[in-house]
Amino acid sequence: MHPKNIHNSFYDFKELIKSNPTLKQFVFINQHKIETIDFANEKAVLELNKSLLAHHHNIKNWSIPEGYLCPPIPSRADYLYYLKDLLELDKKNIKGLDIGVGANCIYPILASQLFNWKMVGSDSNKTAIKSARKNVEGSNQLKENIEIRHQESNANLFKGIIQENEYFDFTMCNPPFHASEKEANSAAIRKTTNLNTLGSEQHKLNFGGQANELWCNGGEALFIKRMIKQSVEFKSQVNWFTTLVSRGGNLKAIYKQLDKIKAEHKTIEMEHGNKKTRFVAWKFCYSKNKLR
After folding, report:
1. 65-288 carries CATH number 3.40.50.150
2. Which of 114, 125, 184, 252 sits at 20 to 30 Å (Cα–Cα) from 135?
3. What's the distance, CA 265 to chain centroid?
């Protein structure tokens, strides 16, 4: 993890339970005599997230609808820490856009509480929009820093969200990376099998996520290709466009598309335990002509 990530350490469950007593019922001592939770238990992970947000970020009323994606907060924070390095800006009035904010609204919340950035979160799912707004309304600081906008067109990512004469220091995205619902369900089963859970149907239930969060036609590669194409229209209104890329095998095609539109680009590698991931960032020379 990023060396400055405040989540770059073992969970202190005694302190986390103080912030959220409900977490206590899910904590146990494993075979290595270490306090932990069952990370295949959706309710346990939800209460862990509530504890982390309350303890580290002063967010007391965060929640998500049943069945929606429950994000791993340490790795979500990592994306933001590396983004901060990428921006290399001393200015205080940073403004970012999260494409596909989701019901959890986690990136704007962390950006607000870690760095006091102004954030816009967009999503095409009405339930996600309602939940994200509810999470923002629970805190005065979040209400000042975060705006949630509904993307009315499933075909568009930036159009209809970025307003005329509006400028963003960055955009970010955690794209759906599966190409079908069947592929997403298979991945969930493999994931929970690795965590030693029992029963295939329980595997499927233990990991939340709606269709728009987990998969889209063409999967991650096609989604990012569409994002790159659409970014050209907004090249004078965004400094850095960025997106997570979960599959390293997709990078070659992404680079080809970025070279095609003549964008400057770089890849930021990240490690979360044994998992390696990265985000790709690109910009246009025209982005220096900032609109204010």
Report:
1. yes
2. 184
3. 20
Under a CB-based contact definition with an 8 Å cutoff, are residues 267 and 236 in contact? no
Per-residue pLDDT of 178-189, as tens digits, reads 444 454 445 444
Q: What is the largest CA-CA distance in the chain?
A: 58
The residue ranges of every structural domain in the chain are: 65-288
CB atoms within 10 A of CB 233: 12
98 phi and psi, to 5 degrees? -100, 110
For the stretch 190-202, pLDDT in tens is 444 454 543 434 3
3-state SS assignment for residue 267:
strand
In this structure, what token pair is assigned to residue 194? Answer: 């690795």
Q: Are 281 and 242 in contact (CB under 8 A)?
A: yes
- Asked whether 191 and 207 are in contact (CB, 8 A), the reply is yes
Asked whether the beta carbons of 281 and 86 are under 8 A apart, the reply is yes
* Conformational region of residue 100, where left means phi above 0, alpha means psi within -120 to 50, and beta covers everything else: left
Cβ count near 81 (within 10 Å): 21
Whether the CB-CB separation of 254 and 225 falls below 8 Å is answered with yes
- What tens digit of pLDDT does each residue of 102-111 get? 999 999 999 9
Strands (E), the chain: 28-29, 35-36, 95-99, 118-123, 146-150, 168-173, 238-245, 264-272, 275-283
Q: Cα separation of 224 and 248, whole Å?
A: 13
